[in-house]
Amino acid sequence: MENLKENQNEYILQLKGIMKSFSSVKVLKDITLTLKKGEILGLVGENGAGKSTLMNILGGIYQRDSGQILLKGKEFEPTNPKVSGEAGIAFVQQELNLFLNLSVYENLFITEMKKNRLGVIDKNTMKKITQSKMAELGVTDIPADALVGSLPMGKRQMVEITKSIMRNAEIIIFDEPTTSLSNTEKIKLFDIMHKLQAQGKSIIFISHILEDIFAETDEIAVLRDGEIISQTKTSDTNTNIVIKQMVGRELTNIYPKCEKTVGDIAFEAKNICQAGRFDNINISIREGEILGVFGLMGAGRTELLRCMFGLDPMTSGHLIYKGKEITPVTPQNCIANGMAFITENRREEGLLLPKTLRDNVVLANLKELASKMSFINTAEEKKETDQMVEELSIKTFDASRQVAGTLSGGNQQKIVFAKWVLREPKVFFLDEPTRGIDVGAKYEIYSIIQNLAKNKSCILMVSSEMEELMGVCDRIIVLSRNVITGEINKGEFTQELIMKYAVGGTK
Amino acid sequence: MDNVKDESRGKEIRAKITDLFCTYGLYVIFVVMVVFFTIQKSNFLTINNILTILKSSSVLGTAVVGMFFVLIVAGIDISVASNMYFSAVVGVTLLNNFNAPLLVCFIAACLSGLFIGIINGFFVAKVKIVPFIVTLATYSVAKGMGLFFTNQKMLFLNARSMELAKAQFLGVSAFIYIFIAIVLIAHFVLTSTQFGRQLYAVGNNLVGANKMGINGAKTIFIAYVICGGLAGIAGMLNAVNLSVINPNFAQGDEFVVISSSVIGGASLFGGKGRVLPGAIIGIVMVQAIINGLTMMGASAYVYTIFRGIIIFIAVMADSIKFSGEIR
Q1: C-alpha distance from B3 to closest chain A C-alpha (Å)
Q2: Is the CB of residue B110 less than 8 Å from the CB of residue B232?
Q3: How far is CA A61 from the centre of its chain?
Q4: Under an 8 A CB cutoff, do B201 and A110 touch?
Q5: Among A247, B104, B124, B261, which one is least packed by beta carbons within 10 Å?
Q6: How far is CA A151 from CA A104, A154, B61, B326, in A?
């Protein structure tokens, strides 16, 4: 009994049987996790495994459906962010909560400024405290009155960390803190993490980079599909085991079979560079080939597509389709040269929700439909829409009357496809084409993609669902931290191999 | 490869030129105008005329200080000029019909300005309606109320108002002292109180501010109330200065106030601006150009066109600067 009590004291945080669903989708199923005092716990898991949801419950942003949270052995109810903050839980997130137009010390003291008796803020005292708190962390190169907006990302993060110790946080959650940091900044960050640990603070460190997780943590917990698969001492496990635990998912989805021939290289992106992100990325796609792009959150997948479509600036590089260079790389010119981009936010970027299906379908094609006098040919418009509705089997009672917003996610996505397919592009960029779509509709989307490839289009498909890429693609390239770390042909696809590349392993 | 380098260098240079234009462009235009006026009219750059410019700047400058508070929290107040009209009507009615002391009239004008500020603040901060629409509505309401109370007639101020209009200390109009005092108080509030610093925080990142435990809605509400109160005082100052209120009183001045604030360093995107010296520089620049044009005998229409051009350049520079900043 005595022994058990001591054991209880050892844990600063215990989660027991935490469940959480979002509109009938179970995101967390019976999570049990423990954090010891003065320990660094690494939390890893694939995209959508439930890491953020779990942390948001701790941070008081979401409320759990059931389960128990014990903080220092006592029951704890994080009902809102303020309660969590006062209980000593601090977040250091990717998206920092800093005011860029204010100085470092003002950011630290914004809600409880030191004042003299007249209510005038005492700048000197605040600067002194700031300086000494940062010195505790070994940070001496940030002036207390520097404007936060003028600091590089790494230093901003130091300010954010200082903010958390100012509030006497005992548990600090680092959520993907290294994504925007340079290597030296990263080393500095880890140094500070260990300093905090030495002061007796407990740390949860979330990262996709297994190398870092293994180098910096005492324990590793693997989260998969809303369940904790394992929590073990870092010294008792290794990269291969963790990768297996992250991906060990059964392949249950069925993918449409399609007889098609893959031709010669048709589309090439050569030496794509974007200042501060991509350095000489090369991609080539054969005629009729579906090339998958896998990467974990923050690997630069969407950014790469956007860059190659001229939506984000391309510092240098060439796009070539069948020997002809597409230049300049602007969205208008890419479209004019037979490229299409189906975005991941169909609601925001791709579709006009309050408009009818017909209006949406013909949107990208108005110029062709217009007669010489620039009037829109309504009959033609209707004919083409009906053809698309049939070809892609869009379920609607009347394409000219039903508005896009009333369709299901799958049918909305088909409209987005229809919109582009009408223009008969030869190169398709697909960004998460099946996100938020039910299984049946996914199958239909896969068929559409297969058919496009059969008709000799080149397809570049980004997805965070590994199985989907394995089921649909002819070849998969893997991105990690803005670099292509691996390339795998159909037949050699394994989940472990893909994940190994995605967590930073090299060829 | 060299081509790429040249291209990126060219881009860099272009970016630098744009940056320079945005930061100093308006000052350059201002200096050119001053030089032009000085050459054309020998009495433009005289102490007497400068004092006149400063006096007229003091009136709208008071409203500019209020506008700074609203712009810092990333809002906008279109209703200032109507607010000035309505508040001045209230103040002057007390002065003329009830023989109230001038100070009481000023307090009454300030209170009616606060009243409109409270309405603006309530609907923007608590009901969360777009500030442009809210203040466009109060712009119309305040103007209408003023016209209703005056029966659209001119109000001539009681002779007692001349005491203040003519009051001087060391040869400088009392107006200027009032304005400077208001600027100093506002500067103190913005830089040396927790509330002031929170205004900037809210204007930069409202979501973040709320997460940190700042009451964002309350902060924004107070900013609009301050803006309303100062507009009321500005209205009364303007009435005393002109010694008459006609139905066109302060018409169109909201644009002068907003553009002066932007010229003085506030941003339509929030989180920026120092009242000292920004508010003074902004309004003096605009008033100097208006004064010069008047001396040249330019028609009222030319003045309106100029006002439009100034607003356009100021806002354009603000937008370009904003899009170039890392947020």
Answers
A1: 10
A2: yes
A3: 19
A4: yes
A5: B104
A6: 10, 8, 34, 11
Out of A15-24, A395-404, B171-180, give the one with best mean pLDDT.
B171-180
Question: Within 10 Å of residue B151's Cβ, how many Cβ atoms?
Answer: 8
pLDDT tens, residue by residue, B243-265: 999 999 999 899 889 989 998 88
Per-residue pLDDT tens over the stretch B99-156: 999 999 999 999 999 999 999 999 999 999 999 999 999 999 999 999 999 998 899 9
Please determine, looking at this structure, whether the domain spanning B46-311 carries the CATH number 1.10.3470: yes
* Domain match, A288 and A240 both: no
Q: A307 and A373 in one domain?
A: no
Alpha-helical segments (H) within A101-172: 104-109, 123-136, 153-166
- Residue A473 domain-assigned (yes or no): yes
Question: Which of A179, A212, A247 is the endpoint of a domain?
Answer: A247
Q: How far apart are CA A246 and CA A277, in angstroms?
A: 27
- Whose structure tokens read 């009392």? B174
Residue A410 lies in a domain: yes
| Residue-number span of the structural domain to which A178 is assigned | 2-247
The answer on A432 and A418 residing in a single domain is no
* Best mutation target, A99, A123, A155, to test chain B (most B CBs within 10 A): A99
Residue A465, domain CATH = 3.40.50.300
The complex scores an ipTM of 0.83
Query: Which residues from B are below 8 Å from A111, CB to CB?
Result: 198, 212-214
Query: Tens digits of per-residue pLDDT, A114-154?
Result: 888 888 899 999 999 999 999 988 888 899 999 998 888 78
Which tens digit of pLDDT belongs to each residue from A46-75?
777 888 889 889 988 889 999 999 998 889
Asked if the C-beta of A316 comes within 8 angstroms of chain B's C-beta atoms, the answer is: yes
Q: How far is B201 from chain A (nearest CA, A)?
A: 6
Structural domain includes residue A224: yes
Averaged pLDDT score across all residues of chain B: 89
Q: What tokens appear for A207 in the block?
A: 């990262």
Residue A360 CB-half CA count within 13 A = 30
Interface test with A, best of B185, B192, B210 (most A CBs within 10 A): B192
Whether residues A475 and A378 share a domain: the answer is no
A153 touches B: beta carbon within 8 Å: no
Number of domains in chain A: 3
Put simply, the answer to whether A149 touches B326 (Cβ < 8 Å) is: yes
CA distance to partner chain B, nearest, from residue A176 (Å) = 19
Which letter does DSSP use for residue A115 in this model? B
Number of Cβ within 10 Å of residue A17's Cβ equals 13
Q: Are residues A203 and A325 in the same domain?
A: no
Per-residue model confidence as pLDDT tens digits over B193-251: 999 999 999 999 998 888 787 899 999 999 999 999 999 999 999 999 999 999 999 99
Which of chain B's residues have a Cβ under 8 Å away from the Cβ of A97?
Answer: 205, 208, 211-212
